[in-house]
TrEMBL record, chain A:
Protein name, as recorded: OB-fold domain-containing protein
Domain ChsH2 C-terminal OB-fold positions: 54-108
Pfam families: OB_ChsH2_C, zf-ChsH2
Annotated InterPro entries: ChsH2_C, ChsH2_Znr, NA-bd_OB-fold, Thioester_dehydratase-like
Lineage, highest ranks first: Bacteria, Pseudomonadati, Pseudomonadota, Alphaproteobacteria, Hyphomicrobiales
SUPFAM superfamilies per the UniProt record, alphabetical: Nucleic acid-binding proteins
All copies of domain ChsH2 rubredoxin-like zinc ribbon, residue ranges: 19-51
From TrEMBL, chain B:
UniProt GO MF annotations: acetyl-CoA C-acyltransferase activity
Superkingdom classification of source: Bacteria
Entries under PANTHER family matching the protein: ACETYL-COA C-ACETYLTRANSFERASE, NON-SPECIFIC LIPID-TRANSFER PROTEIN-LIKE 2
Organism lineage string: Bacteria, Pseudomonadati, Pseudomonadota, Alphaproteobacteria, Hyphomicrobiales
SUPFAM superfamilies: Thiolase-like
Protein name: Thiolase
Native organism: Roseibium aggregatum
Coiled coil: none
Positions of the Thiolase C-terminal domain: 238-381
């Protein structure tokens, strides 16, 4: 007899499935209300197990940023602070040289076969 | 509880292969050589070892591999293969102290070896996939440190010049160390114009890629007293575990060194002003700034001006990374054990041209992952116990 609280696909697979359906989701804890990303089996804030996926607003702010250099040029890698609270690694699209800390950004799902969450600058979105 | 251990455990012997580029010599062979050197240093042998502590870049079963290769298996009474990156060996130190104090073992060997430079020239990352980071093509681990550096610059006004002064101080020290890998002249312009890899960090902000092997032998202080070398006592230790992926670090401009450092100071019963010599794991220039601040050697955010003032260079008020550090001495993938070895050299008074006169208490701090794990050890000469 398994514990029904943990039945069904695990949170990683569930998140990926939602992403494939065009939904960028974060988990909310039914106990303390905190949002978390990446998804997990437990709430990393309170230890609760009642976690529910909800679509993220997509709103975020660049918390830190770097331009990764290679022969092909530079590409952005950023840590984005989501409006819901958690942070995630991602990429801000467009000229990497003009991505700054504090920049307001909006999430978008990019790529068909392997969808990834990227961010556009809010003023251009 | 750890305060009960103050000075009870000592580093009796150290081994350092000083082979920073050794083609044809495997990582395990570097480790084995360092282990023999450490045991000979204190007049013991492999037959005396009954506890083994190791982490390895290319083996998920280091205790098994190393016990077999060194013939230790049948006699082992305690072992720990905790893997938290470059700080692992200071976690091992803490683990070994408890086991030694509890009488679960008598002679503990902490050891490491790497051939990453001669085997390919690149830092070999662990197979440890991170699906929420992988799609974005960050350089691992460098981009994670770059993100921390960028945030530190944003919050505190730290500049690339400040970071460059960390590399310059390391080079000034390595010039005094005949065993350091890089001892050539280095100018501020050269550091600032080095190839940018992941803004704001350049190649000159990054540690060396070398081979190497290191080992230390630990015993209870009463046994160490009767061995060949002057014992270096462990006065206090502290550890902290913060995150795995950089996006999960609570504050990118503040490391968990503030936790491990405070715990070590408390256990040692000393204050920062008692410390004569400091080693901090400088995988990248930003690490030295973060750890000096978070350990409390300067105010938070003041690491840049502190280092640029010459404070940590030869002749400065706080000798830091006197072997030349990971930036200029050696960096065989996981450097943590080398911080302890240089602290022991300084406390024994055997550091030659770079010797800090009268050094009695040294702080060694190691980092692992991407500012993920932090470990601090405070070591002292016998008269500090």
């Amino acid at each position: 007899m398994t514990d029904p609280r943990f039945d069904g696909p695990g949170p990683d697979a569930a998140w990926e499935d939602l992403l494939g359906q065009g939904v960028f989701a974060v988990q909310f804890c039914g106990n303390c209300g905190i949002a978390q990303f990446p998804p997990g089996v437990v709430c990393r804030h309170c230890g609760g197990t009642d976690l529910v996926f909800q679509a993220a607003s997509g709103e975020g702010t660049v918390y830190s940023t770097t331009t990764v250099r290679s022969r092909e040029g530079g590409r952005n890698v950023a840590v984005v602070q989501l409006a819901e609270g958690p942070r995630m690694m991602s990429r801000v699209e467009g000229d990497p040289e003009t991505v700054t800390i504090g920049l307001a950004v909006v999430a978008r799902i990019s790529g068909d076969e392997t969808p990834v969450v990227v961010f556009d600058r809010k003023e251009q979105a | 509880m750890t305060v009960l251990l103050r000075g009870k455990i000592a580093i009796a012997g150290t081994g350092n292969t000083r082979r920073w580029y050794a083609p044809g010599r495997s990582a395990f062979e570097q480790l084995a050589e360092a282990s023999v050197l450490a045991l000979e240093d204190c007049g013991l042998g492999l037959k005396d070892v009954d506890a083994l502590y190791c982490a390895h870049s290319t083996s998920g079963l280091p205790v098994l591999n190393i016990a077999e290769r060194l013939g230790l298996g049948p006699r082992l009474r305690h072992a720990d293969g905790t893997m938290v990156g470059g700080a692992s060996f200071l976690f091992h130190l803490r683990s070994a102290m408890s086991a030694l104090a509890a009488g679960q073992c008598d002679v503990a060997l902490v050891c490491y070896g790497s051939n990453q430079a001669s085997a390919g020239g690149k830092l070999v990352p662990m197979p440890d996939p991170q699906p929420y980071e992988e799609p974005y093509g960050a350089r691992y681990p460098l981009s994670s440190y770059a993100l921390a550096a960028a945030r530190h610059m944003h919050e505190y006004g730290t500049t690339r010049e400040h970071l460059a002064h960390v590399a310059l101080a390391a080079r000034q020290w390595s010039k005094l160390n005949p065993d350091a890998r890089e001892r050539g002249d280095l100018s501020l312009d050269e550091v600032l114009s080095a190839r940018m890899i992941s803004d704001p960090l350049t190649k000159a902000d990054s540690c060396l890629v070398t081979d190497g092997g290191a080992a230390v032998v630990l015993t209870r202080a009463d046994m160490a007293r009767d061995l060949k070398r002057m014992p270096v006592h462990v006065l206090g230790t502290g550890i902290a575990v913060s995150h795995r992926q950089i996006a999960a670090m609570p504050d990118l401009a503040r490391s968990a060194a503030h936790q491990s450092g405070a715990a070590a100071l408390q256990a040692a019963g000393v204050s920062l002003t008692d410390i004569d010599h400091v080693m901090v794991y400088d995988a990248f220039t930003i690490c030295t700034l973060l750890f000096l601040e978070d350990l409390g050697f300067c105010a938070k955010g003041e690491g840049g001006p502190f280092v640029a003032s010459g404070a940590i260079s030869p002749g400065g008020s706080l000798p830091v990374n006197t072997n030349g550090g990971g930036l200029s001495c050696n960096h065989p993938g996981m450097y943590g054990l080398f911080t302890l070895i240089e602290s022991v050299e300084q406390l024994r008074g055997t550091a030659g041209a770079r010797q800090i006169e009268g050094a009695k208490i040294s702080l060694a701090h190691a980092n692992g992952g991407v500012l993920s794990s932090q470990a601090t050890a405070i070591l002292g000469t016998p008269d500090t116990v």
